[in-house]
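Quick one: structure for this chain?
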Amino acid sequence: MANESRPCPCDIGDRFDYGGRGQEVQVEHIKAYVSKPPASTDKAVVVIHDIFGWQLPNTRYMADMLAANGYIAICPDFFAGKEAWKPSDDWSKFDDWLKNRDPRKINKEADAVLKYLKEQCGAKKLGVVGFCWGGVAVCHLMMTYPELKAGVSLYGQIKESDDISNLLNPTLFIFAEKDDFIPLHQVTLLEQKLKKNCKVDYEVKIYPRQTHGFVHRRREDINPQDKPYIEEGRKDMINWLNKYI
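Got it. Here's what it folds into:
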């Protein structure tokens, strides 16, 4: 998940000044942020954070947006109590930091969260969205948990060795054209693999002139030139969930 010259371009972007409308709960061995819609529903979405962790206001903003669109949204601490990355941390140590925070080794947390949604929230129709680190996690979960009926992976890095063709249910992949972190040739390779081997619906979409993190770490009010793409990315995410959940 890194390159040698710069391990990750995930500078914080625009950190939202946002308090959140949901509440923090304990889900077995982890904490989570839960936001619920005004009307009762049996539809729920797991929101997977980026390297800045489950408490980042931007990610909670996304969870609240999903709740406003009729979903129970839960953003668990998939780092399971380990410290999130901080903007002040030394990028040269990023690879070491990442070693015990593998986005493909989150089944224990996923099991707890899905159980909580089913038993405590009455959820029967489930989906998942994730950003950056969480985008990689979405790919893993969409190949592992058949009860997740829709997935949206936002700028999750793809390794050329990854074969994510074995998706169990429809998945949307959102990428940015100017992402220093995910070269477009990797996106092309992903599309080729999916076209050849994928048995379920999928879509790979590249947003012009956008950079890593644009959907949840760019503010339309201070980045007016990006506003159409920010809004489009969020709308596409919600439309995909609406279509398949």
